[in-house]
Write a structure and sequence with these properties.
This is DUF3368 domain-containing protein. By secondary structure, the protein is mainly alpha-helical. It is built from 10 helices and 5 strands, in the order βααβααβααβαβααα. The chain has a single domain, classed as 3-Layer(aba) Sandwich (Rossmann fold).
C-alpha cells in the first residue's frame, strides 16, 4: 500500500506522541518536498520536525510533474503548495491513500479520484486495528495540545463511529 501524507497528520500525531500509528498502520509513508519543507523550515519548530528527518519510514519524494502541481493549485482556491504536491505525488505513484485534514485539499484529491482520509480516519483505523483502545482521549489531546480544530458534529460522529 502506497500512502502519501500532507503536513497536518504528521504534526498532529507527533504533538500527541502517536506518530508511530502511521508506521503501524501503513508501514511507510511518502511526503512530497513541500511537506518536508513545511516540517523542517529553519527557525520554526513544529511537532514532528525531528522525526521526519530521522525516521526511515517517512520518505521524502519529489514530484516529477511540477506543472501538475501548478494546475492543481490554480484549479482549486486555497490549496497550498504542500497539499497540491501531496495530490500530484499521489497521482504519480498511484497511491492507495492520501492523508490530509484540510477540507479543500481533500475535496481536490477526491476530484482526481484519490482515496482521502484525515486524522480522524487514521484514529478510527488505529482503533479497528487494535492499536489504540479508545479514540476519545486522543481526540481530546489533539484539541488541547495540537490546537486541532474539529466541529462538535464531527467530533461526535468520530466517537460514534468508534463506538465510544
Amino acid at each position: 500500500m502506497i500512502v502519501v501524507s500532507d503536513t497536518s497528520p504528521i504534526t498532529n500525531l507527533a504533538a500527541i506522541d502517536h506518530l508511530h500509528l502511521l508506521q503501524q498502520l501503513y508501514g511507510s509513508i511518502l511526503i512530497p518536498v513541500a511537506v518536508y519543507d513545511e516540517l523542517v523550515y529553519p527557525g520554526k519548530s513544529v511537532p514532528g520536525q525531528q522525526e521526519v528527518q530521522k525516521l526511515i519510514w517517512i520518505q521524502k519524494q519529489p514530484v516529477q510533474d511540477i506543472q501538475a502541481v501548478l494546475d492543481i493549485q490554480s484549479s482549486r482556491a486555497n490549496i497550498d503548495r504542500g497539499e497540491a504536491e501531496a495530490i500530484a505525488l499521489a497521482l504519480e505513484v498511484g497511491a492507495s491513500l492520501v492523508l490530509m485534514d484540510e477540507r479543500r485539499g481533500r475535496s481536490a484529491g477526491a476530484a482526481f479520484g484519490l482515496q482521502m482520509t484525515g486524522l480522524l480516519g487514521v484514529l478510527l483505523q488505529a482503533k479497528q486495528a487494535n492499536l489504540v483502545d479508545t479514540v476519545k482521549p486522543l481526540l481530546d489531546n489533539l484539541v488541547a495540545k495540537a490546537n486541532f480544530r474539529v466541529s462538535r458534529a464531527l467530533y461526535d460522529f468520530a466517537l460514534k463511529s468508534a463506538n465510544e
